[in-house]
Fold each of these.
Amino acid sequence: MGSFDAISHEWLLTHIPMEKAILKKWLKAGFMEKHVLYPTEAGTPQGGICSPVLANMALDGLEQALSEVIRPTTRKGRKAKIHLIRYADDFLISGSSKEVLEQEVKPAVEQFMRVRGLELSQEKTVITHIENGFDFLGQNVRKYKEKLLIKPSKETGSEPFAELHI
């Protein structure tokens, strides 16, 4: 099940600033596969033209929610170095400590998503050190000594396209 297969239609209809009748039709449009119409009872239609926009709008406010838990202007917040990177329904949150990510950031994200009828993917949610590397949007990111290496993840399999020295 994809991350937006269960998004709350009620939450979207209440919070997305657009014509509600049109939004309701988009949400209930369903999808066709091999000439069979599959209705959409929950979530956003897979492959629908509005789904990426709705995904982005549903996640709007995540950065604000994180800054309320760990205020970036405080000493603790500056030390935590919490940063959010988002692309449609994929996001990455970096921080300076595993403990802060596990004990403060992850519960805040889970609460933010729960209100929207969403939950973190157990398969994709990983807290790891950058020296061990991680995959994000088809790329593998890893720090090796003083180099930040970004190359296609093993599923993609081609040459690195970025190398940053830090």
Note: The radius of gyration is 18 Å.
Amino acid sequence: MTGTEIETTGTETGAVFVRPGSGGWGNGLLLDPANGKDVVLSVTGGGIHPVAARIAELTGTTAVDGFTTSIPDEKVLAAVINCGGTARIGVYPRKRIPTVDIYPGGPGGPLAEFITEDIFVSDVGVKQIEPRASDGSTPAAAPVADEGPTAAERLAAAKAAAAPVGGGAFARVSGVFVRFGEIVGSIVNTFLASGRQTVQLVLTTILPFMAYVSLLLGIVNYTGVAKWIATVLSPIATNPVGLIVIGIIGALPFLSPILGPGAAIAQVIGTLMGSQIAIGALPVQYALPTLFAINGQVGCDFIPVGLALGEAKPETVAVGTPAVLLSRLITAPTAVIIAYLVSFGL
């Protein structure tokens, strides 16, 4: 046994299931050593990664440092990498070798087309590795991780045993550079993964929503429906009861999603009331209730998109959208009344 190879004694099941972490991608991999696949390749730099050591421990295979040892592809059970989306992330999936990425993120780089859910999983730590039977079920007596020395402990012992006497200073300096490289690589890959997710979110969610809002705004302005409604409501905006009525009308479920993008009621009534208060025709205490009266429709066009951005299930979106729209019929006029009461003394 050397610092670049760890032999282990397998569990009774001989298979593990590797699931993605909270920021990971993929459905998970069932790794079952068979047909001579008895090597877990650690391609992370700085020796054998604990994830590779844990997989080897539970499967009874051998963890090998891919930077120092060449292993035939047909003997590799899985490759453990630390790549945030550059070329290396797709090297092993292209060879159809199950790939375990310790960094978060999905397919990326020039070989992204080869990264599929049946061959790749990301954001994997030791806790994401579970012993399984070959059929995918969890064995009744799973091995306890703290019984005897773990693979990580054996790795540390192996490194200590392999360190040449008298070469300790060089080994320590080399270790510092390796750890520094790992830290820098982790930071860079985290930013890279974040940037990729941001761009994907903009392309798949924000831009389509902006196009939808632009289309709806164009329809509202072209047809003049919202402006007509606002003009009709303007005469009744000069008294508290009228403001309550405006709040109710603006919050009607079949009108609020249409009035929201155009903001016609907010523009027309707000301009009217603002000018009347400015010249002294209306008391200043009308300002606050007017604000709540014209904003009953705000955000009603965004409800389904907001729920989708929050990764709500389709059932939640189907129930949540009408629930919020109907609740506006209660909260909008109530807000106008409260605002009118607290506006005295302004």
Note: The two ends are 82 Å apart (CA to CA).
Amino acid sequence: MKTIQLSNIKKTFHLGGETVKALDGISLTVNTGEFLAVIGTSGSGKSTLMNILGCLDQADSGEYYLEGVKVNQLNMNALADIRNQKIGFVFQGFNLLPRTTALENVQLPLIYNRGKKINNPTQKAKKVLDMVGLSNRINHEPNQLSGGQQQRVAIARALVTDPSIILADEPSGNLDSRTTDEILFLFQKLNDKGITIILVTHELDVAEHAKRVIDIKDGRIRRDYEISHRRYITA
């Protein structure tokens, strides 16, 4: 089953009198249950692609289908519903609310999810925190957690609405190598459960933990290949 279909996606920005082609005809299919890494240097277009996939921005032209729905025909409210119900986001900077416990941070998406009523959001949040190995840290605030623990809270927050896709933008960018391995192991376990994961990174050794890599340069896909010798981490 195809989760994502992009056809000839283009996106241009106008900066300081110059026209920059951020995406220059991207066509891409992502099947359900894939673990895809998008790699490229700064300015390659990978973050712009992530924003379009996450319905945070829209392409100038081309077609984007998400689970059969044509995304680029939707209004802002419909796009917000997709972000809340189908996509979980994990960012490099964690984006956790300070002076708010891990449990409260994870519950937030359930409060704003208009499409799916959760009878017991606290229980659901505890469940996903346990899934990411933080059942003993639910009452800790971000400044009481390590960088890796904060990223696990962010991953739990992404998971709490049962999304079909996790979009992770440089999720290991602020982490040391050992903690990076822990987070990538967690992504691999989640992918083994059938969750589609798209990870943006500029590091090839991080990308090689995925099953497939898209290499972007100057807004175009220059390589699209399967990982034959995948780096699979074991606990």
Note: The chain has a mean pLDDT of 90.
